[in-house]
Amino acid sequence: ALQGLSTLQSKPLCSLEKFGKIISLQIGWKNVVLLNGLEAVKEALVQRSEDFADRPPFSLFDHMGIMMARYGHGWKELRRFTLSTLRNFGLGKKSLDQRVTEEAGCLCSAFSHPFNPRFLINSAVGNVMCSLTFGNRFEYNDEKFQRMLHLIEEAFNIGAGIMSQVILDMMPWLLYIPGPHHNVFQPYTDSFDILREIVKEHKETRDPGFTRDFIDAFLEEIEKAKMDPESTFSEDNLIFTVFDMFGAATETTTVTLLMQFGRVRASSHPAPPIDNVSIFPGRVHEEIDKVIGRDRSPDIEDQVNLPYTNAVIYETQRYCDVVFAGVPRTTYRDTEVQGFFIPKGTIILTVLSSVLKDETVWEKPHEFYPEHFLDADGQFVKREAFLPFSAGRRMCLGEQLARKELFLFFTTLLQHFTFHIPEDQPRPRDDGYYVLIHSPDSYELCASPR
Ligand code: HEM
User: Fold this and answer.
1) How far apart are CA 168 and CA 171, in angstroms?
2) Which end of the chain is more exposed for a tag (fewer CB within 10 A), N or C?
3) Does the beta carbon of 323 sit less than 6 angstroms from any atom of ligand 1?
4) pLDDT digit string (tens) for 366-406?
């Protein structure tokens, strides 16, 4: 369904006038309902939050974790624990902000001339997760680290691919027949093996009086819940939760940052860009110079004093709609939206793209226009229809972390560099490709120190 959507995803799907707020599809023998536009998506996810809080069964694994867990006690316990642990900025010796700032500095030092930003940005984003979950970062060329990032990306693409989304889901009996389709499990089992090894090392070196990272915090919870037969805290669930967080965090954040840097692409050109999707970075540079200067590192508190920079970051997320069709949900009970009855167990796709480009809400829905997030005095304003992280009970668990990364990476890099596309290279294209998320085509950048 998701891959089919990719061909529909361009402007017409967002057109409420043409498709309406509720679209019903039959895929094989499954009923799928697409919710289109702010009104329908908000009614479902916010006003009827619990009715839409379930996920479809995942054909590849009957595992727990958070992302694909069915709505219920286990999911609630893991989500609550993970959220509060991420909020607890004092994990180990460093705060969350410090970990992101430190990584942004490492990323600056790694720039060569010219380079493909994907590898470096993906490594930096992966390292923030490593620092939080394993307590340490890796050199970007570390083989084990790159293998892990590669396996997670592969597993992510397989999970969203035609084999697992459609073929194995519709014909689960195929799993009992030997054949090449069993290869879909390989990246998952390989990733779990790597994580199991890391958990084993943690158990061996752990000091119960000091929590270094997420894995230590989870191991503590397993111990506390030893006598509770209802508890979800187990070593398997630790592996699945960490795997889920890496899967959910790395591609989405990397791709969003790639889109951000793709926007400031005209910086070597004397005149502002003439297309309507890139920005003239002079104003971002000016704002950063005035508020932060060149000597100290950006701080998350600087956000309030950088309204234009912040508006560019938000507008990139709006315009690029990375998780364009949300993550599939299932109705938890019989319910209704906009007066239409929807039975329990129906697969729901919340077309976030149609909210981020809702023609009834945004002034210039199909243009890159940072002013969407600025008031008449140039101050930053939040918008109700800004839902790249979705909404309701299953909304993105990593929004706060992602916000910090998008802001701190962007400002740190623009504080130190101007970017341009090498003369002989094509400009990044916006349509890119769609596999569960919307990624830009690969592009090359030159970074010149300021
Ligand atoms: C779920 C977007 C970064 C962890 C989601 C969902 C979206 C999303 C749209 C689906 C929510 C729903 O079903 O309604 C994004 C974007 C990101 C980002 C655009 C970056 C720019 C992160 C990060 C983490 C993370 C950094 C890591 C901590 C999760 C998890 C879920 C999720 C665990 C599943 C939540 C649940 O089912 O309860 N994200 N995300 N995400 N995200 Fe993110």
Assistant:
1) 5
2) C
3) yes
4) 988 999 999 999 999 999 999 999 999 999 999 999 999 99
- SS3 string, the chain, reads CHHHHHHHCCHHHHCHHHHCCEEEEEECCEEEEEEEHHHHHHHHHHHCCHHHCECCCCCCCCCCCCCCCCCCHHHHHHHHHHHHHHHCCCCCCCCHHHHHHHHHHHHHHHCCCCECHHHHHHHHHHHHHHHHHHCCCCCCCCHHHHHHHHHHHHHHHHHHCHHHHHHHHHCHHHHHCCCHHHHHHHHHHHHHHHHHHHHHHHHHHCECCECCCHHHHHHHHHHHCCCCCCCCCCHHHHHHHHHHHHHHHHHHHHHHHHHHHHHCCECCCCCCCCCCCCCCCHHHHHHHHHHCCCCCCCCHHHHHHCHHHHHHHHHHHHHHCCCCCCCCEECCCCEEECCEEECCCCEEEEEHHHHHCCCCCCCCCCCCCHHHHECCCCCECCCCCCCCCCCCCCCCCCHHHHHHHHHHHHHHHHHHEEEECCCCCCCCCCCCEEECEEECCCCCEEEEEC
Ligand 1 centroid distance, CA of 253 (Å): 10
| 98-131 residue pLDDT tens | 889 999 999 988 887 788 889 999 999 999 999 9
Among the listed residues 371, 398, 396, the one whose alpha carbon sits nearest the alpha carbon of residue 383 = 371
Distance 248 CA to ligand 1 centre (A): 6
Q: How far is the CA of 189 from the centre of ligand 1 (A)?
A: 22
Q: Give pLDDT, residue 276.
A: 47
Lowest mean pLDDT among 10-24, 140-154, 196-210, 365-379: 10-24
Binding site membership of 318 for ligand 1 (Cβ less than 6 Å): no
Distance CA 370, CA 368 (A): 7
The model's pTM is: 0.91
Ligand 1 atom closest to the CA of 387, numbered from 1? 9
Closest residue by CA, ligand 1 atom 26: 249
**Which of these, 396, 409, 403, 302, lies nearest to 352 by C-alpha position?**
396
CATH code of the domain made up of 2-419? 1.10.630.10
Query: What was the ipTM of the complex prediction?
Result: 0.99
